[in-house]
Design brief:
With 313 residues, the protein is of the alpha+beta class. It has one domain. It has a four-stranded antiparallel β-sheet with strand order 7-8-9-18, with no helix packed on it. It is globular and about 50 Å long.
Length: 313
């Protein structure tokens, strides 16, 4: 699986199973890659670059153990990441931790696949999560991927491979998603092949979407064309693999035509159907408990003390 990260001050990172490249990473983050110790980096599980040099990095060391290190993150998020049991062991599964940071670290969503915490999410994303909620905590369909972007943009994919999005700041992705949804009439199983989604929260146009079969679709600045795409070209291939880049040198229609092979729709595991247009996607979570959803919509999660913190039931 690929790891792609964008951060402020033209910082970035990309990894496939066989290689990685980066630019202007925080010094403390770079030190892990430079290490010759047994805990030096063999594989990056997750790397998130935030405001003012903040970051989270989780990795498998050369000794086979998993490690995490973070700096400059919001206090409540840092406490969640560092939570330990009575024996002093980290509670959360390091290899499973996935974090999305919004602009200036003012919002975030984090999970290890079992526990979830979030703060100050965009209204559309919060509403979608409310619709998935079960009384007492947990989800009918857990969020599998959450990406936070610039200007309140986001994309969410559920464990049932439905989803919700608002990505007007990423025009190539926005048009692509709307066309895919229109072609298939619903969101049912639309994202079954999607492995990762990265939105640049600092520059509202850059994004990368990668798939389990090795496909990818994205847009990056000209100066990164010869860095990001060659790494993603090394993703393990499957039959019929084709890459799609939202090229700045071709028409959008050509990019989308090429991208038609990226997402392979499966009819099973229906998570949601319906949705909105006009630059965003939506979901109809008709199975949610209406009263519980209504009560959650009256809450705002607007401070650290009120951050949502759920475990899967």
């Amino acid at each position: 699986m690929a790891v792609v990260a964008f951060g402020p001050d033209e910082s970035w990172f990309v990894e496939s199973p066989s290689q990685w490249k980066w630019g202007t990473l925080p010094e403390r983050c770079l030190n892990f890659f430079r290490s010759t110790q047994p805990s030096g980096v063999a594989h990056v599980h997750n790397l998130i670059l935030g405001a003012n040099g903040s970051f989270l990095m989780t990795w498998r060391g050369k000794d086979g153990s998993n490690y995490q290190f973070h700096a400059g993150l919001p206090a409540h998020l840092a406490a969640w990441l560092d939570k330990k049991d009575h024996k002093g062991r980290l509670v959360h599964n390091i290899a499973g931790i996935r974090l999305a940071l919004g602009p200036n670290n003012a919002s975030y969503f984090v999970t290890d696949g079992k526990a979830y915490q979030w703060l100050n999410l965009p209204p559309g994303l919060k509403s979608a999560l409310d619709g998935l909620s079960k009384p007492g905590g947990g989800f009918t369909y857990a969020p599998r991927i959450v990406a936070l972007g610039a200007r309140g943009n986001y994309m969410m994919i559920t464990a049932g491979n439905g989803g919700s999005w608002s990505v007007a700041a990423y025009p190539e992705l926005d048009t692509f998603l709307d066309e895919k949804k229109a072609q298939h009439g619903s969101l049912a199983g639309l994202f079954s092949n999607v492995a990762t989604v990265t939105l640049d929260a600092c520059d509202g146009r850059n994004f990368v979407l990668t798939c389990f079969n090795g496909d990818y679709f994205g847009y990056v600045p000209d100066e990164l064309d010869n860095a990001v795409w060659p790494v993603l070209d090394t993703l393990p291939k499957s039959v019929g693999r084709q890459q799609a880049r939202a090229s700045k040198m071709s028409t959008l229609n050509s990019a989308l035509k090429l991208a038609n092979t990226v997402l392979r729709v499966e009819s099973k595991m229906v998570a949601a159907s319906g949705g909105g247009g006009g630059g965003g996607g939506g979901v109809d979570f008709s199975g949610a408990n209406d009263a519980f959803t209504a009560s959650l919509q009256n809450q705002t999660w607007s401070s650290v003390d009120n951050a949502a913190n759920w475990n899967v039931q």
